[in-house]
Write a structure and sequence with these properties.
With 299 residues, this protein is an alpha/beta fold. The protein contains ten helices and 13 strands. The chain has one domain: Ribokinase (UDP-N-acetylmuramoyl-L-alanine:D-glutamate ligase), CATH 3.40.1190.20. Helix 1 crosses helix 8 and helix 9 packs across helix 10. It starts with a strand and ends with a helix.
């Protein structure tokens, strides 16, 4: 089995209490892929500019990603600059340059149109919808978004939610879109908009899963030193969706395992800047930390 991820491949500049890094390889699709590749074949759908370093393309391809639908546009690559302070739970965005992302219309090959597992990572809902209409028979579709799109394209986002299976949001986004402050009420309201399942990411406090059959919650894996949280949510989604695509099952047990794998994958992401830690991650690394995570619940 394989999965398609639509999202951004970006050049990120980040400052945290542990240092500053400029123009790191990043973006929602890149972070997602570093975790998902451990479970299944990943087809990355994104756009970069003519200024995108060739070594980054080589790096992504060497990680086993299918880049046949990575478009090189005439212009500059999407760039994001952010700063983390205090508990590092949220970033202060200092600068965003859309570049070629502003004219992005995703294309997929005839072979990729047959892929049944799809994750629409954080980009404009119109771009997400454009890709989804090209797919022939999707069976498992996940979607992520952000407050910017909730505020500026709420109508388009709500329309798209009717066509997906899994909606992934952080706690602030879930409250904003649902109008509910309590997260369980927010998840229930979001499910009423169309998705069969809702995942609410709570940062260092873990994740809440909701569907009409059951509610499940996991804490975050305890990490001693958080260096850079950028992309942790995308890495979580990659572990979650990658496991479900690889196991070819979507039942309560598979979902709980997928949530655990996503949580553990995200714990590696925060231990270094950008993709530096997750790009070295192996399935064995993941399994060893998952075993430690399970011990946290043994009593």
């Amino acid at each position: 089995m394989s999965i398609i991820v639509l999202g951004t491949v970006a050049l990120d500049s980040v400052k945290t209490p542990f240092g500053r890094r400029k123009e790191l390889l990043g973006g929602s699709a890149a972070h997602f892929s570093m975790a998902a590749r451990l479970f299944t074949k990943v087809n990355l759908i994104a756009i970069v500019g003519s200024d995108f370093p060739r070594q980054h393309v080589t790096f992504l391809r060497d990680k086993g990603l299918n880049l046949n639908s990575l478009i090189v546009g005439d212009g500059k690559t999407f760039r994001w600059e952010g700063q983390y302070q205090g508990d590092l739970n949220s970033a202060l965005t200092l600068n965003t340059q859309l570049g070629v992302l502003s004219v992005f219309k995703p294309e997929v090959s005839s072979e990729q149109r047959e892929i049944e597992n799809i994750f629409l990572a954080n980009v404009d809902p119109d771009i997400q919808e454009h890709l989804l209409t090209k797919m022939r028979s999707p069976k498992l579709v996940g979607l992520d978004s952000m407050n910017y799109w909730i505020n500026t394209k709420r109508k388009e986002l709500i329309k798209l939610l009717k066509r997906i299976d899994i909606y992934v949001a952080n706690d602030q986004e879930a409250r904003s879109l649902s109008g509910e402050n309590n997260l369980i009420k927010a998840a229930k309201q979001l499910c009423s908009l169309g998705p069969k399942m809702v995942l609410i990411k709570k940062g260092e406090h873990g994740v809440l899963f909701y569907n009409k059959k059951f509610i499940f919650s996991l804490p975050a894996y305890p990490v001693e030193k958080v260096i850079d949280p950028t992309g942790a949510g995308d890495t979580f989604a990659g572990g979650f969706m990658g496991f479900l695509a690889g196991t070819r099952q979507v039942n309560s047990l598979a979902i709980k395992k997928a949530l655990a794998y996503g949580t553990v994958a995200a714990s590696f992401n925060v231990e270094d800047f950008g993709l530096l830690r997750t790009s070295r991650l192996t399935r064995s690394d993941l399994e060893r930390r998952l075993a430690k995570f399970k011990n946290c619940f043994s009593f």
